[in-house]
Amino acid sequence: MEDSTLLTLLSLKSVTESFARVIHGLTVGHLTDHVIQRSKRMILDTLGVGFLGTSTDVFHKASEYSKIYSSNVSSSVWGRPDLRLPPPYAAFVNGVAIHSMDFDDTWHPATHPSGAVLPVLMALTEALPSSQKFSGLDLLLAFNVGIEVQGQLMHFSKEASDIPKRFHPPSVVGTLGSAAAASKILGLSTAKCQEALAIAVSHAGAPMANAATQTKPLHIGNAARHGMESAFLAMLGLQGNKQVLDMQTGFGAFYANYSPQILPNLDSHTWLLDQQDVAFKRFPAHLATHWVADAAASVRKHLVTDRALLPTDRIERIVLRVPDVQYVNRPFPDSEHEARHSFQYVACATLLDGGITIPSFHKCQIARPQVRELLGKVELEHPRDNLPSFNTLYCEISVTLSDGATFTECTETFYGHWRKPLSKEDLRGKFRANASSMLSYDIVERLIEIVENLEDLEDCSMLTTLLKGPSPPVMASKSI
């Protein structure tokens, strides 16, 4: 080890300071091709689910609330050219849209990494003075800084490796990732980055009790907003505990087995995204249900031929062998949000329809008599080896008919998981389907082109202009 590196490591007094130095010190030269390619896929997918999310009831409520705030500085709400908000509230509303259907990317250890970061960067690059031009590489760097901070924090706890039981991770690490990304794009000093992290910790955390409700999407919206506000407050000189990441009573309050480590010197920096890709969802529901859908689709082939209907009256028993994840154990969901967090519903809907789509979670689909009949036949079992981790879990489904015949199928990795990633064309297809709900064909295709070549973009204003969506029609003035 060189003397200068050793001296740098020895001079670091805290984990918090090491994070601040990484946030401040990382440059575009640290980005690897692997990280650039993976993060571009994350950005494209996140934009798409964000556009789709603007059609939801929870987005409408959040955007109506945010209209009470006004400022001379404003940023766009994606796909809504008639609605502009102060940057923190534009980030909030766009973050809510991204998670409104639980359709956004998922990482391991478990969190939704992109939704708390991308809305912040889009709002800031649009709202900051036009003299301050940001390139696609600037955006990619700040985005990856926000992702990296989240991943490093989750690796400080064994508890974080499992599907969460207490706090929703995007509301915890997402808030700090947002603060880190905002600090990077705003060009804060190392000392100010450290303060932003300290402030963000006091904004972090939301309980899992609000999973499967309209409030859960607010967790990501709030993470985006509060992280940006933390960076702004740090920039104005607000101070917090400079060892907040080092302490059990600081960031450690969110985890039972928190064991932080000083980050390595930048000379030996490696990105977590280089080592661990994310999962992209093919339908909008909790990630664990994707194993269930694939297993149910496989067993359905034994029960249905050609276009025949599922013989629900002949089904006696459906057994799902899944991890013990209580907030996804919902025997009779009544709302779209509960259905998105129900092993049972996803299994039954897949058996009936052959697959899960966006309309599968409409109220009329959930309330179908055939669905309610099947739900009453579902039992859950929790094998000891089926741990609640997105990296190792599996789903085995057995369907027993009235004549005693039993058909069993098992899924260990679904299509879209990081071990079986979506193809480039299928990721584009998902984006097209989602974004076309708000944008014209030409804008959708232009966005794909820009994001897939983001490292070559000289000015991010080209991207933020497209995110606004089509200009509202101009009403012709009447002559008097």
Describe this entry's structure for a reader:
46% of the residues lie in helices and 7% in strands. The protein has 480 residues and is of the alpha+beta class. The strands form two sheets. A four-stranded mixed beta sheet has the order 4-3-5-6, with helices on one face. A two-stranded antiparallel sheet has the order 1-2. Helix 12 runs parallel beside helix 14. The chain is globular, with a radius of gyration of 23 Å. Mean pLDDT is 93; it is low at 1-10 and 474-480.
Short overview:
This protein is α+β, with helices and mostly antiparallel strands and 480 residues long. The chain has helices at 3-11, 15-25, 33-53, 57-66, 87-99, 118-127, 136-154, 169-186, 190-201, 216-235, 272-275, 288-303, 336-339, 343-353, 363-366, 369-375, 424-435, 441-452, 461-467, and strands spanning 75-77, 80-85, 315-321, 378-381, 395-401, 406-411.
Write the layout of secondary structure elements.
Layout lengths: L2 H9 L3 H11 L7 H21 L3 H10 L8 E3 L2 E6 L1 H13 L18 H10 L8 H19 L14 H18 L3 H12 L14 H20 L36 H4 L12 H16 L11 E7 L14 H4 L3 H11 L9 H4 L2 H7 L2 E4 L13 E7 L4 E6 L12 H12 L5 H12 L8 H7 L13
Parallel strand pairs: 3-4
Antiparallel strand pairs: 1-2, 3-5, 5-6
